[in-house]
Amino acid sequence: MTTRPRHDRPSPRDARLSGLEVWLTGTPAELDAATAALTDAGHLTQHGIRRPLTGTDAGRYRLYLRLTLTATGRRAPAADTADAGGALIDLAAARAHRRTA
Question: Considering only CA atoms, which of 51, 63, 61, 1 is closest in space to residue 26?
Answer without folding.
Answer: 61
